[in-house]
Amino acid sequence: xxxxxxxxxxxxxxxxxxxxxxxxxxxxxxxxxxxxxxxxxxxxxxxxxxxxxxxxxxxxxxxxxxxxxxxxxxxxxxxxxxxxxxxxxxxxxxxxxxxxxxxxxxxxxxxxxxxxxxxxxxxxxxxxxxxxxxxxxxxxxxxxxxxxx
Length: 149
Prior knowledge:
By secondary structure, the chain is mainly alpha-helical. It is globular and about 40 Å long. Helices cover about 60% and strands about 0% of the residues. It has a single domain (about 25-140), classed as Pheromone/general odorant binding protein domain (Recoverin, domain 1, Orthogonal Bundle). The termini are far apart. InterPro entries: PBP/GOBP, PBP_GOBP_sf. This is Odorant binding protein 39. Pfam families: PBP_GOBP (PF01395). It comes from Sitophilus zeamais. GO terms for molecular function: odorant binding.
């Protein structure tokens, strides 16, 4: 009987492992561009708004379509859960570690505390928080050590 139970457990465990979602894989730059174009179309946002944000890094706080664009894009890139209730920071950190030192990304920890019921607003507020934090990293990296001890 004990062998049968172990066998059933192993079959269940194997079945569960087969149903587990695949590990996160960073989208390539080409994939990210395709996702952006698809979300621009889905949300019906003027592409120039996205281009302006990329150029100026000024976020349009009152533009609902921009927030919906972020929601669409983050879901498709794997940075927002499919139900839109939480940011997937492990995936986001994996992406950001391509551009920043992993140790530096600790400044983003407080962004994880953002809680909002609306997925589009959740994405927008997290992006605001992340950008402020990344600017701190960049400012620290640009400092010159004048301490000649």
